[in-house]
Amino acid sequence: MPKMKTHKGTAKRFTFTGSGKLVSAMGRRGHFRRRKSTRLLQKLSRMQEVHETTQARVLRGLPYRKKHAR
User: Fold this and answer.
1) What is the pLDDT of residue 33?
2) How confident is the model at residue 41, as a pLDDT?
3) How far is the C-alpha of 70 from the C-alpha of 66, rounded, in Å?
4) Residue 1: strand pairing partners
5) Are 42 and 19 in contact (CB under 8 A)?
6) What structural domains does the chain harbor?
7) What is the pTM assigned to this prediction?
8) HEC string of the chain?
9) 48: closest CA among 18, 25, 68, 19?
10) Which of 28, 37, 54, 59 is the most buried (most CB within 10 A)?
11) What are phi and psi of 54, to 5 degrees?
């Protein structure tokens, strides 16, 4: 059976924490930043855990996730 390919868009957007949780950066940060409060922008700069209902779809694009997870 041939190797499965990693979906590169998924690989760039999602990462694993040391404990194995799947996290991604929050959106709404790149457009109209001057009218957003500094506090909101600080909040949006953090990583956010991926919701459990979305994880199966994301992990389909990362077939070798166990190899790269810590």
Assistant:
1) 87
2) 93
3) 8
4) none
5) no
6) 8-68 (4.10.410.60)
7) 0.78
8) CCCCCCCHHHHHHEEECCCCCEEEECCCCCCCCCCCCHHHHHHHCCEEECCHHHHHHHHHCCCCHHHHCC
9) 25
10) 59
11) -100, -20
Tell me which amino acid residue 3 is.
Answer: K
Q: Distance between CA atoms of 65 and 62, rounded to whole angstroms?
A: 5
- Residue-level pLDDT, tens digit, the chain, 70 residues: 899 999 999 999 999 988 889 999 998 888 888 999 999 999 999 999 999 999 999 999 988 887 666 5
| Residue found under tokens 């779809």 | 57
The CA–CA distances, whole Å, from 20 to 40, 52, 55, 56 equal 27, 13, 12, 14
